[in-house]
Amino acid sequence: MPLKLMTSSNASTVQKESVRESTTKTILQAAKVIFSFSSYVDGKLMARSSGFLIDWDEGSKEGTVLTSARIICSKYTALTQWSGTDEYVPDAEIIAHLLDEDETTVPAILFRYDKHINIAVLKVNLDLCAKIPRFSSDINYGQEILVLGRDERLNMTIAHGCVNFMGPTTYERHHYLFTGCEPSIGGMVIDFDGHVLGMANFPGTAYIPSSIVLKCLDMWKKFQ
Question: Which InterPro entries would you find in this protein's record (predicted)?
Answer without folding.
Answer: Peptidase_S1_PA
